[in-house]
Amino acid sequence: MRTNLVSGATVGRLLVMTAALAVSSTAVSQEFPSLSGAVASGGGEVWSGGDPGGSIAGPSLAGEYLDPIPDEGNELGAVYPGDACSSCNGGEAGGIRSFYNRCGCDTPQFPWFTGPGNCDNWCVGPHWNVEVDGMFIHRDDADWAAASVTPAQIVDQFDYGPGVRIFATAYNYSNYGLQIRYEGVNDFHSTALTGAAGITYQSNLNSLEVNLMRRRDVPLKIFAGGRYIEIDEEYIETTLGTGDTDGTFIENRLMGFQIGAGRDAWQLNRWVTIEPFGNIGAYFNDFKREDIDFTGSAQTIDKNEFDEIAFLGEAGVTSVLRINACLALRGGYQVMAFHGVAGALETAQNPVGGFDPDELIYHGARFGVEYQR
Q1: What is the pTM of this model?
Q2: 269/210 Cα distance (integer angstroms)
Q3: Domains of the chain in sequence order
Q4: How would you classify the pairing of strands 327-341 and 127-139?
Q5: CB contact at 8 A, 285 and 254
Q6: Residues 254-292: pLDDT tens digits?
Q7: What is the C-alpha separation between 321 and 339, in angstroms, rounded?
Q8: Torsion angle, CA of 17/22/23/29, rounded to 10 degrees?
């Protein structure tokens, strides 16, 4: 009987050791890769086009990463293989609905495309594209010949004014995008002298637009939206000697809609692409004019407001140099042609209260950076 008892204990110990070895072997085979291994993996893909909604994991990841294991207390994690996706990924299972997981359900290394440290490869949130450019824009020269008193000397004609262009686009899970753009130049100056007076002419341009668009597999991208443009100008004539001043201040406030298109890229090589764009729009111009006359201590102010239909055509081309998957350098040229707006110089020559709409053209270069994730 004693021999049988010893043999039973031995068998029990052998079974425990066998189970421990099996667990240890499984743990070793399921070890996560190192950070450098995750970053260097080529199995993922940084988003640059096409449908962003699918799983990004490629065949090369199959033997390199574990299947995603969700945190039981955190619904933001991935799901077990074979389980339904949360509703944000098109499945029927319950889950957090306030974010968009563009990596899908069965992607390793959630919440990254290809692991931490590789640019900005988050699975959650919209696709972002942000462009920030410095602008050097030229406004049509002041038409001093149209003035009733031709200046004897043009001290400074309108030159290239510095400005900024900020462009941000976010795409949701269905590839629809919301696009917001601001551009403005607030430093156009022209001055002149006559035998009796000095003249100062200043102009500003500011534009804000919101567009809707849909990202598709074809290169041509259509967008449409609303736009607000303001062109403010002031014309001040100061009589030499007496200091008496006459000023005309105008506001072209354009509110309307536009439609346009851009081509994603003509790829010259793996680093350089060419991206043209163009748009046209119709606007309601709420034009305001204010004439102020200072003679001695007396001041006279006359205000008038007019309505006019205005149009804008805009086109440009940009060359993009890719630094990496997220960052690029940009340089381009654009033209803006207005019809139905008025300048302060021409307005000042009209009878008080008049409005004489005309054409106005801006053009110039821009240089900046682009970031996408």
Answers
A1: 0.69
A2: 32
A3: 32-118 (no CATH), 127-372 (2.40.128.90)
A4: unpaired
A5: yes
A6: 999 999 999 877 888 888 999 999 999 999 999 999 988
A7: 35
A8: 140
